[in-house]
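Lab intake sheet, docking and co-folding queue.

SAMPLE TYPE: protein with bound small molecule
LIGAND NAME: nicotinamide-adenine-dinucleotide
LIGAND FORMAT: SMILES
REQUESTED OUTPUT: full 3D complex as structure tokens
PRIORITY: normal
SUBMITTED BY: R.K., bench team

The fields below were copied directly from the construct record.
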Amino acid sequence: MLRRGLRNRGSISYSGALFAESFHRLLSTQTGGKLQDKVALITGAASGIGKATATKFINNGAKVIIADIHQQLGEETARELGSNATFITCDVTEESHISNAVDFAISKYKQLDIMYNNAGIACKSPLSIVDLDMALFDKVMDINVRGVVAGIKHAARVMIPRGSGSILCTASVTGVMGGIAQHTYSISKFAVVGVVKSLAAELCRHGIRVNCISPFAIPTPFALGEMSQIFPHVDRQRHVDIIHNAGVLKGVNCEPNDIANAALFLASDNAKYVSGHNMVVDGGFTSFKNLHFPAPDQVQ
Ligand SMILES: NC(=O)c1ccc[n+]([C@@H]2O[C@H](COP(=O)([O-])OP(=O)(O)OC[C@H]3O[C@@H](n4cnc5c(N)ncnc54)[C@H](O)[C@@H]3O)[C@@H](O)[C@H]2O)c1
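RESULT FIELD (auto-filled):
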């Protein structure tokens, strides 16, 4: 019953969000959005958080380059988002792909205002450090950390001469507290927060802001893939419920649009004095622990 209630609330709020997005798109074409005439490059934008952010940015007046390793999905997403979205194939483990994507933005639009290093992968690895698979560790670091550093490097290359820019990265609640995910993924996300702080320290001198967003678990293909490996015997809806039930904030669930809203704020001039920041979007999950003491009258 509780689960059904949660599910219903989720679908009502999702259709509400879709309506709000359509309304906002209409409004922004008439009034100009928060990112009017800005150019954004988003890695991993064919799906999930990246796609929701690309949608949000376009609805706020931006032109978006969708850079993703998944060509078919990326092209479909770009078609769906219309003429202000362009797809480019990009594997973030290949520095030349990132460099090409940045150069493509410059050749098409003459500028790059926002670089969102969002692409990342999960990994199912043994829970104990003793059994750590170092090859898998390297692969995850290659995408989740090296890919982010390369993205910032090439964005900075074109932003420094202009003396402005906003760089975003997707970290995670698993990079805020230990124990939420297995070591490899968690370490990669702690590293993203470190990358952001280290590079914000240099790039502030050039008027470039660098921030990251740490989402709570969201049932995107990324998280659902993990769930189906851990719980292969139950269906997709049950996986969604397990993810949503892990949250602490009553009555709402973490959705891609919540991260897109955070990204819109950080990318826009509303955050013109925010840099080196890790914006945690987790309903309070990493801020507290509750002591589940029994009620006084239950203790004899
Ligand atoms: N969903 C969650 O629960 C959650 C929570 C915290 C952080 N994150 C982070 O959010 C980011 C986006 O994940 P999502 O949940 O939207 O997942 P998703 O699976 O919906 O999207 C990830 C996208 O990244 C692309 N991608 C994967 N490897 C790539 C590579 N080497 N080069 C370029 N693109 C690549 C995929 O094709 C896909 O389109 C990731 O960095 C992830 O670690 C997700």
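REVIEWER NOTE: The chain has nine helices and seven strands.
SIGN-OFF: pending second check by T.M.
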